[in-house]
Design brief:
The chain has about 120 residues and is an alpha+beta fold. It is about 30% helix and about 20% strand.
């Protein structure tokens, strides 16, 4: 208990300590770098097997690269790969999508689905 000769100094010391504990300390703990949450969810490609293009009987003209929209699971695997733009040759498009489904990204928990758009130039042998 407080003695009567303290003139309330001990009370105010305890009051300031309590305010510091309940207000200031949590504010310091919560004041994190704003990029921390975003950086935790940054995608890093870990493995990217190349497409195995089929050999075609006749030479065909390629329009452009293949653009594929990816949806990733939290474990870094590809949940879905959807063709956004074709190169103009269906077997090559299929080879790119098949290879992209084997790609692996870093694992991130608590970030939900991540999305990426990948453009690959088609270079058959």
């Amino acid at each position: 208990m407080l003695s009567q000769t303290d003139d309330g100094r001990s009370f105010w010391a305890l009051w300031i300590a309590l305010v510091a504990l309940l207000v200031i300390v949590p504010c310091v703990i919560w004041a994190q770098d704003p990029g921390t949450e975003r950086d935790k969810c940054t995608m890093r490609l870990l493995s990217s097997p190349k497409p195995n293009y089929p050999v075609l009987k006749k030479k065909q003209n390629l329009k452009s690269g293949v653009v594929v929209d990816l949806v990733l699971n939290e474990d870094g695997t590809i949940k879905s790969a959807n063709l956004a733009r074709s190169c103009g040759i269906r077997p090559y498009d299929d080879a790119v999508i098949k290879a992209l489904k084997r790609w692996r990204y870093n694992k991130v928990l608590g970030c939900g689905e991540r999305r990426a758009t990948v453009t690959l130039q088609v270079h058959p042998k």
